[in-house]
Amino acid sequence: MTQTTPGKPRIRVRAGRAEAAGRAPEDAPQAGARTYRAARPDRLAPFLMADHAPASVLARDLPGLIAHSREAARNNDYVRGYLGMVARQVVGPRGIALQSQVTFRDGAAPDALARGVIERGWAQWGAWGEPTLCGRLSWRDVQALAIKAVASEGNFLARIVTSRAMGRFGFRLQVLSIDHLDIGMNASALRGGGYIRNGVECDASDRAVAYHMFPAPRGDAEATHRRGARERIPAANVIHLFLPEEPLQTIGRPWLHTALRRLNMIEKFEEAALAAARYGASKMVFFKRPDDDAPTPAADGGDQSPIEEVAAGETGVLPPGWDIAPFDPNYPSAELAPFVAHMLRGATVGMRTSYASATGDLSQANFASLRAGLSEERDEWRALHAWFSAAFHGRVFNRWLDAALVNEALAPLRLESLERYRPAVWRARGWQSITPREEATTAETLLRNKLAAPSDLAAERGQDFEELVSRYAADMRTLAAAGLHLPTAVEADAAAPLETDAPPSAG
């Protein structure tokens, strides 16, 4: 649209901007050049053009992100529920289990003796009171604390302590808070080309080499007497968990960082709605008169006040000059629930979970949408299983195995064969199908057609196949000793032909 006024330049008006005709803005490209419209902010799509490295932005904003996330975890029901769901889905009710993969030296056959010794020793170390210095946690508790800390604060820290005084295995963890780390400590030029960012010291190749920590967490008034000069702890003795999302990232950020503002606004909106609903539920009546300054005399010459209280079925007569001004707010309105649901859908996308799982609202779900949503969500949990097992369990297990063999806690295993004992896999929890009959039929078909092994199906359910076979054999022996027989389904015959859709022959 072009507007023309005599004696004045023509003005070309476009959505979100106005510019003189024939005069290009200073930062505009040459006429006819192809550009990316998303590369420049405008009124309809504003964004900052500042060129800051992601690591620098995170280093500056991390304290505020952590404080906001902690406040939400303390007071926001959706955040509290989300953190509990993360612990349930990633760690599971029994934790992520170790399955040793030790073989004999030729690698041809599994070493059942070594596997059993290692797995039993790991289970004994993980019992309540054993794995941590404080003596108040089990290994499953540590796993749950770790994944919840990473989700809510972006980071989990633990210090490795090894000595013969650390129990039978000579190995324990000191669970720390992000407040132990001096996240305000930064240095850009250390000797050798290294640097410090948020208390994490890295060498010239960006590998963490040390952590600068306080003996007691910041803000802990009861531990002020233990707070002293920060300590430089070698990275080899620190377990630092965070989910990397950017190159050169040395510290994590809360997983809720994009959802926090939405969740905060929802909470404040609900508080305002609650206040309005309380007023709406309180039906009040106000009295008014034409002239508020002039008193209204009563018939007997005294002042007569309007009715101040009413009772059921009571009627009355207003004094002369008084009128009724009813106060009847219409709240809560029908728009409250759709608005909150709309905001929560956006927040749950940032939380990388489904709306139904995060809110428990299944009013709009059907079988097809629920099944599709669960499939996507479980893929996300499986990805977190893989990361968590490699970053946390694998490293703790290797250090525990070193200490246990040094302290001769895994007899008859010997330190000389340490590297042979390291292979292991981690079995995370599995999920029951929402269509168990269909899943059972599919599993039977896969086994019959040799498209899956029994161990594959056990792994999908989060079970150790060797342990499953051992328990099954023990149960069969118990039943046989009692003269009982357990009916079983038709087992896949190794010599059975592949199933086809061809009809059976007439013969």
Describe the structure.
This protein is of the alpha+beta class and 507 residues long. Among the domains are: 54-241, no CATH class; 284-298 and 305-327, no CATH class; 434-493, no CATH class. The chain has helices spanning 54-75, 77-91, 112-125, 139-153, 260-281, 336-350, 355-359, 367-406, 436-448, 454-460, 465-481, and strands at 2-3, 11-14, 17-20, 97-100, 156-162, 171-176, 195-197, 200-202, 208-213, 231-234, 238-241, 284-288, 323-327, 424-427. Helix 2 (77-91) packs across helix 4 (139-153). The radius of gyration is 34 Å and the shape is globular.
List keywords for this structure.
507 residues; alpha+beta; 4-stranded antiparallel sheet; 3-stranded antiparallel sheet; 11 helices; 14 strands; 36% helix; 12% strand
